[in-house]
Specification:
Layout (H helix, E strand, L loop, with lengths): L1 H25 L5 H4 L2 H30 L6 E8 L2 E6 L2 E5 L19 E4 L4 E7 L4 E5 L4 E5 L5 E5 L5 E7 L12 E6 L1
Parallel strand pairs: 1-5, 4-10
Antiparallel strand pairs: 1-2, 2-3, 5-8, 6-7, 6-9, 9-10
Helix pairs in contact: 1-3
This protein binds copper (II) ion.
Copper (II) ion binds next to loops.
Length: 189
Amino acid sequence: MEIYYNIIIIYLIFIFFILFFLSYFLFTFWTSKVIVNHTLEFLFFLFPIFLLSLFLLFSIKALYIREKLFGEIYSFKLTGNQWYWSIELKDKIINSYILDFNINYNLRNIDTSNHIFIPVNVPSLIMVSSQDVIHSVGFPDGGVKVDAIPGRLNTLEIFRYNSGILNGYCTELCGPLHAYIPFQIEFIN
Ligand SMILES: [Cu+2]
C-alpha cells in the first residue's frame, strides 16, 4: 500500500510546482528577465526528467509486486480445449464437459461434469494454457479473467474465504461450441 501513498505524494509535488509556476507567471510582470531565463529553462528540462524517473521507479516496483506469487500452496493446471476444459492436478487429468442440456442439468449451459476443487483460505494458483486455439478463463463470479493461449502458461491467483460453487465461462470466441464450455469452481473447506 505504501507505494500508492508515495505516488500520491509525487503527484502532489507535481501539482504544487505546476500551480507555483502558473501563479508565478500570472502575477508577475512579463519582463525580459522572466521571458528569457536560461536557468528556469534548464530547470524545466531537468525537473520533468527527475519526476518521470521517480514514476518509473515506483511503477517498475509495482509491476514486480503485481507479478510476484505470494506463497501459493495449492496449484493446478487448467487447459482449454475445443470444447471442454481439462483440469490437471498432480499426475491426474480430469476433463470438465458441459452436461447435456437435453437430459440432465441443474442450471442450463452452466453445469459441468467435473468441478474444479479449490480449498478455501488457501492461496491458490491456477496455471492456464490451451491445447488448440485461444480460449479465455472468464470467471466473473471470482472477479478474475485470463486468456488461455496455446504454448503459453498464464497464471491466475485465487484466494477465497467462503465455500460454494461459482461459475465460469470461456470468454474468447474459440469455435462453434464456444458458448458451451463453462467450468465450475467449487470452493471446499
Ligand atoms: Cu473457448
